[in-house]
Amino acid sequence: MNIIYAGATNHVTITCPICGLVKNKDITDFKDTHKRLKAKCKCGEVFRIELEFRRYYRKKVRLTGEYYIQEKGKGEILVEDISMTGIRFSTFKIHNISKDDTVELKFTLDNPKKTEIHTLAKTKWIVDRNVGAQFIDLKHFKQDLVFYLTA
Predict the structure, then answer these.
(1) In this structure, are strands 102-108 and 86-91 parallel, antiparallel, or unpaired?
(2) How many CB atoms sit inside 10 A of residue 32's CB?
(3) Taking the CB of residue 91, how many other CB atoms lie within 10 A of it?
(4) CA angle, corner 140, sides to 123 and 120, nearest 5?
(5) Assign residue 28 a region: left if phi > 0, alpha if psi is -120 to 50, beta otherwise?
(6) Strand 130-135 vs strand 116-127: parallel, antiparallel, or unpaired?
(7) Model confidence over 32-56: pLDDT tens digits?
(8) Bridge partners (DSSP) listed for residue 25
(9) How far does CA 69 lie from the centroid of its chain?
(10) pLDDT (average), residues 18-27
(11) Class of 59-150 in CATH
(12) CB under 8 Å to 78, separation ≥6 — which residues?
């Protein structure tokens, strides 16, 4: 299944996997509906696509690191995906992280430079040991993250 990113414009380019026909489409009407769709090409090919309305590409990773929350504690994490604006991680042990907490994160990218990321993030959602957070300050590692996400 192809994942197609709409970004901020809600316009995508869909390419038939068989004949290569390219079609540009406004997908605004699909924003609040199912994100997995069937597409049918003029050549007769039916294929599945998944629409992603995130503003930035989210890269799946497996990076170990740690978190710290003042007065709540610290622990080890596994970063599972990362984008220009946020991160999803899981804790190795049960935690007491709450929604809207400011969490200090420290992990190392698996790039050739082994870039260490040390930043603050605000938690947006929590499901069991899984946490989604938005970066608060990108200026110290933005360039490294851009190169990492596009590699």
Answers:
(1) unpaired
(2) 8
(3) 19
(4) 20
(5) alpha
(6) antiparallel
(7) 776 788 889 999 999 999 887 766 7
(8) 12
(9) 22
(10) 90
(11) mainly beta
(12) 62, 63, 64, 65, 89, 90, 92
- Against a cut of 0.70, is the pTM above it? no
Tokens describing residue 48? 């599945």
pLDDT tens-digit readout, 82-100:
998 899 999 999 999 999 9
Question: 18-27, 58-67, 108-117, 139-148: which range is least confident on average?
Answer: 139-148
Query: Please, what is the Cα angle at 140 between 120 and 58, to 5 degrees?
Result: 70
| Tokens found for residue 1 | 């299944």
* CATH 2.40.10.220-classified regions of the chain: 59-150
Question: Tokens 């049960």 sit at which residue?
Answer: 94
- CA 87 – CA 108 distance, rounded (Å): 13
For residue 107, is pLDDT > 90? yes
